[in-house]
Specification:
The chain has one domain. It is α+β, with helices and mostly antiparallel strands and about 170 residues long. The relative contact order is 0.17. A hairpin with a 2-residue loop joins β6 and β7. α3 packs antiparallel against α4. The strands form two sheets. A five-stranded antiparallel β-sheet has the order 2-3-1-6-7. It has a two-stranded antiparallel sheet with strand order 4-5. It has five helices and seven strands, in the order αβαββββαββαα.
Length: about 170
């Protein structure tokens, strides 16, 4: 026993701890934010596949880019990502604050969610990666259809012209 610290050393080896950590590894937690689409791989992914998916992640988005990460906390074995779908308001380059019309914001949020789900589905086909997806309280799995996620993002949304909406807010940060 170490008298200065009041603790006892055990003979557990670091390798045994590492095996225990890997065997008990759980995917990263996703937030229940209704403005952000969260997703994570259901199973560990090889480094080569993870790097390819991170490289292909869409960097363009209505309210922000799609982020896909290999968290060090999971040893880089699970992918986790998110994409903000609603902009609400923003500051222009000249420093003015601008509020986005709610109907425009929701139409573009719906468009963003559909594009993100298309990307996840494509990665599922190409790399055999399955995903958990969450938007607010709605949670689904991809490759299965994601009606609850799409409904959460697209209910009461009129089929607006995305290009026209983009033009109305051409001064938004990218």
């Amino acid at each position: 026993m170490n008298a200065a610290r009041g603790c006892r050393r055990t003979g557990m080896r670091p390798a045994a701890l590492a095996i225990l950590f890997v065997a008990c590894e759980r995917p990263p937690v996703m937030e229940r934010n209704p403005d952000v689409l969260w997703f994570r791989s259901r199973d560990p992914v090889s480094t080569a596949i993870a790097e390819q998916i991170v490289k292909e992640a869409r960097q363009d988005g209505w309210a922000g880019p799609m982020y896909v990460l290999m968290p060090h906390v999971t040893g880089g074995s699970h992918l986790v990502g998110h994409q903000r779908i609603l902009l609400h308001e923003y500051e222009t380059a000249s420093g003015q604050s601008r509020i986005v019309d709610a109907a425009d914001d929701h139409a573009m949020g719906c468009f963003t969610v559909r594009r993100a789900l298309e990307s996840l589905t494509a990665w599922t086909r190409r790399f055999e990666v399955q995903w958990d997806v969450q938007l607010g309280p709605s949670r689904e799995r991809v490759p299965r259809n994601s009606p609850a996620i799409e409904h959460a993002a697209c209910h009461h949304v009129s089929a607006g012209d995305a290009a026209a909406i983009e033009r109305r807010y051409a001064d938004r940060p990218r």
